[in-house]
Design a protein that fits this description.
The structure holds two protein chains of two kinds.
Chain A lengths: L4 H31 L5 H9 L3 H12 L4 H12 L1 H7 L12 H6 L3 H9 L8 H27 L11 H17 L4 H16 L2 H27 L1
Chain B lengths: L2 H25 L7 H22 L12 H17 L2 H18 L1
Classes of the chains: A mainly alpha, B mainly alpha.
Chain lengths: 231, 106
């Protein structure tokens, strides 16, 4: 097999912003789990096998309440169902990826998806290796952060209040990158209105899935209007 | 929860999570996608980024002082840094440090 140094380098360069975000968030997750007296292996196993930020943080709640496994399963699906839509826009990009494809799909987090869809790829690169390395780097950051946080959490206490804003900041940056790719403001407005309606009327646990449903309904309604306009 | 149950719960979450990621690749693998799915998929990325911003802020109470002003200020700074300097690290780091100072010292 040829060495894929170019793809490795390109993927690393693109993944740098996620490096900080994931190290910090992974660290916060590891710290939180061990400060709740979970064994150090629990957060690390979660970061290796689940590898989904929002779900892992929510899992802290699932584990402490006595939820049935089926409830955990359904809640997890709903929390992350948005990821099904990610794949839809990547079917073409991930085509012909062979043995690398299962890991590329497994490692498809919000941030990895954001990078793949927001940043233009150099045409000379073998894209399946580039996407594979990008996913791998990001997960390594996540796991490293988790291990560091879990270790530190078992020894030291310090004030991490406000650290979780790094997740918000990351999505702000990714939204700006999306706007650069497609300067149509309508999806942003739909997203904002759906979110505000959900925050006001829906309990926090269901806010994500309700705002996604609302925004998709709004999109479809808008599409019909556009089609009628053309007729 | 007993140790064995924690690991079962983790396995359940891992499977559920993987299913959500693999779903379109399993069901739309070879077939031509329906036209409305293509339409949604093309508009979904910008929409979800905005929704996730709101989701990460959903716990903030905007009806009592300081009315979410710290979050809005930090988001404004993050966006400004990113538009001006176009560097992910500076934007995220700058916004987060600003926010941590706002919530810890004010």
């Amino acid at each position: 097999m040829k060495t894929k140094t170019k793809e490795l380098k390109a993927a690393f360069k693109i993944s740098i912003p996620v490096l900080m975000g994931y190290c910090i968030l992974g660290f916060a997750f590891g710290l939180l789990m061990t400060s709740l007296h979970y064994n150090i292996s629990v957060p690390i196993i979660m970061s290796i096998f689940i590898y989904a930020g929002a779900l892992q943080f929510l899992a802290i709640g699932f584990l402490s309440s006595k939820l049935a496994l089926i409830d955990i399963f359904i809640a997890s699906i709903f929390v992350n169902i948005r990821q099904s839509f990610y794949g839809l826009s990547l079917l073409e990009k991930f085509k012909n990826s062979g043995k690398l494809k299962p890991y590329m799909i497994f490692s498809l987090t919000d941030e990895t998806y954001g990078l793949i869809t927001s940043i233009k790829i150099d045409k000379q690169l073998d894209k399946k290796y580039y996407y594979f390395f990008l996913g791998l780097f990001n997960q390594l950051y996540w796991i490293s952060g988790t291990i560091a946080g879990a270790l530190v959490g078992s020894f030291i206490k310090f004030d991490t209040k406000g650290l979780d804003f790094s997740l918000t900041a990351l999505f702000v940056v990714l939204a700006i990158e999306q706007y650069k790719v497609n300067k149509n403001p309508i999806p942003f407005i739909i997203g904002a209105i759906s979110s505000i309606i959900s925050i006001i009327f829906i309990p926090l646990d269901n806010m994500l899935i309700v705002s996604i449903s609302l925004s998709i309904i709004a999109l479809l309604l808008l599409k019909r209007n556009l089609n009628n306009g053309n007729n | 929860m007993e140790t064995i149950n924690i690991y079962t719960a983790i396995a359940v979450m891992a499977i559920a999570n993987l299913l959500t990621r693999a779903f379109p690749f399993i069901f739309f693998h070879k077939k031509e996608q329906p036209e409305y799915i293509k339409f949604i998929a093309s508009y979904f990325p910008p929409m979800i980024m905005i929704i996730l911003i709101f989701y990460t802020l959903a716990k903030i109470d905007f009806t009592t002082a300081p009315y979410g002003s710290k979050e809005i200020l930090a988001i404004f700074l993050t966006a400004l840094l990113h538009i001006r300097l176009n560097n992910y690290l500076i934007s995220i780091f700058g916004g987060t440090i600003c926010y941590m100072m706002l919530v810890q010292y004010l």
